[in-house]
Specification:
Keywords: FAD, Flavoprotein, Oxidoreductase. One of its GO terms (molecular function) is 4-hydroxyphenylacetate 3-monooxygenase activity. It holds the Pfam family HpaB. The protein is of the alpha+beta class. It has two domains: 270 residues, Butyryl-CoA Dehydrogenase, subunit A, domain 2 (Beta Barrel); 179 residues, Up-down Bundle (Butyryl-CoA Dehydrogenase, subunit A, domain 3), CATH 1.20.140. Helix content is 48%, strand content 15%. It has 16 helices and 14 strands. Strands 2-1-10-11-7-6 form a six-stranded mixed beta sheet, with no helix packed on it. Strand 1 and strand 2 form a beta hairpin. Helix 10 runs antiparallel to helix 14 and helix 13 crosses helix 14. The longest helix has 31 residues. The chain starts with 5 loop residues before the first helix and ends with a helix.
């Protein structure tokens, strides 16, 4: 089965009948018609349709000869990595980069696991062949995934391991038909609107019963998704289309069949797959590819606001826009350096250089909130005085169109732009986006620590030593 269409995606999710709770009630009926999911599912479907409209979105599978989504491509050259980036950015352009969990993200994660199977060879309680078979099954059927790996925040102290009340999803039984999982996990974005959920342990996990990697269908018995409040509003250009639901995932004695278990009770294997495998270089490449598009979108909104109210002559305004420009161009440079500075491993897989990509992800955590601050400052009172579309169609609409006008634009046009800016920087959706980017790929402090440990400094130190020797 080749890359699916949007209609196929919608039908598959509506057929699942998954256990999803929203605002105290279990959702019944078609999920694609629920107000909290209709917009994002329609946007996701549009991405799948795009695969059939653009030649750069698929590649020919060597086994089946069918067209497979490029996000499942294991790169064998720098050209392959660039092809992946073009596909990722094609999708991101369609949604402005605001869908952080569009299908290419988790497809990339699964692909990184499939490209790192050598690390599991010889390890106890690991099944590399099953993982490879599942990757091939997923790409041949163009499965969509969410994932969950964060432990609930019940006790985050250094002595949390002494706590007897375990809330994190854990293995409570091993049976002939599979593992039994009980507990909870955070933070499944797009929970309930994907074919499957991949569950894996945080690489810092120390407990064997909380060490695993598996994938199960979204409608698996005992699996429950509990949603946050939706940010969807009828008059909002972003949240109405791209609000990806975040969910708590409850495992109530969920049986994971052995054919879907790839690692269990092996802390070292879980950590190795994350830290030593292709997970980091593949996923940060996907992330930065999307973030470049999002940063460009923010730049477009900010400059459009400047033009709308004709404030481009002021020095501080030019400085703020230039600040965004520097960030955009820096992200691009780091992305291209990561692609071009990669290496081929012994298995013939091309691995982007993770260091510049890691720097980009780390920088974006501070850069994006600063961009939102700039948008708020540029818009000032215009970010608050935003009548609805119905107001413009009412008896006061003519007055609003005149009195709220911009520079060479009428009031309705100006408010439409500023409503977009508000939805991006100040609405519930916008605040969630900012918080999400602030912690994307992990705690900023830990990311900085990882970067400190990853980045080689010997060359720089040697130069200093040579300089000192030359002066002696």
């Amino acid at each position: 089965m080749p890359a699916i269409t949007g209609d196929e995606y919608i039908k598959r999710i509506d057929t699942l009948q998954s256990n999803i709770w929203y605002d105290g009630e279990r959702i019944t009926g078609k999920l694609s018609e629920h107000r909290a999911f209709a917009g994002v599912m329609k946007s996701q479907a549009a991405l799948y349709d795009l695969q059939h409209q653009k030649e750069n979105m698929t590649f020919t599978c060597e086994k089946s000869g069918t067209g497979i989504g490029v996000s499942y491509l294991i790169p064998r050259s720098v050209e392959d990595v660039k092809k992946r980036r073009e596909m990722i950015q094609e999708w991101a352009t369609h949604n402005g980069g605001f869908m952080g969990r569009s299908p290419d993200y988790m497809n990339t994660v699964l692909t990184s696991f499939a490209a790192s199977l050598d690390l599991l060879e010889g390890e106890k309680k690991t099944f590399p062949k099953k993982l490879r078979d599942f990757y091939e099954y997923a790409r041949e059927n163009d499965l969509s995934f969410t994932h969950t790996f964060i432990s609930p925040q019940s006790n985050r102290s250094k002595l949390a391991f002494l706590d007897d009340e375990v809330t994190n999803a854990r293995i409570v039984e091993k049976r002939d038909d599979g593992l039994v999982i009980r507990g909870a996990k955070l933070l499944a974005t797009q929970g309930g609107i994907t074919d499957e959920v991949i569950v894996y342990s945080n690489p810092g996990t120390a407990e064997e019963d909380q060490s695993y990697l598996f994938s199960i269908p979204t409608d698996t018995k005992g699996l429950t998704f509990v949603c946050r409040r939706s940010f969807v509003e009828s008059d909002t250009p972003l949240s109405s289309r791209f609000d990806e639901m975040d969910t708590v995932v409850l495992f109530e004695d969920v049986v994971v069949p052995w054919e879907r278990v790839f690692i269990y009770e092996n802390v070292r294997a879980v950590t190795s797959l994350y830290k030593e495998g292709k997970f980091i270089p593949f996923t940060v490449h996907q992330i930065v590819s999307r973030q470049v598009i999002k940063a460009e979108f923010v730049l477009g909104v900010a400059q459009s606001m400047v033009d709308m109210i004709n404030i481009g002559e002021y020095d501080h305004v030019q400085g703020k826009i230039a600040e965004i420009m520097r960030g955009v161009e820096s992200l691009k440079a780091l992305l291209y350096k990561g692609e071009g500075g990669g290496t081929l491993d012994e298995g013939g897989v091309y691995i982007p250089d993770p260091i510049p990509l890691y720097v980009a992800v780390s920088e974006f955590q501070a850069f994006y909130p600063r961009c939102m601050e700039i948008v708020q400052q540029l818009g000032a009172s215009g970010m608050i005085t935003l009548p609805s579309e119905r107001d413009f169609s009412s008896d006061v609409g003519e007055n609003l169109t005149f009195y709220l006008k911009g520079y060479e634009k009428n009031g309705k046009e100006k408010v439409a732009l500023f409503r977009l800016a508000w939805d991006m920087a100040m609405s519930g959706f916008g605040t969630r986006q900012m918080h999400y980017e602030r912690f994307f790929f992990g705690d900023p402090v830990k990311l900085a620590q990882n970067l400190y440990q990853m980045c080689p400094t010997e060359r720089a130190k040697n130069r200093v030593e040579q300089f000192l020797q030359e002066r002696s």
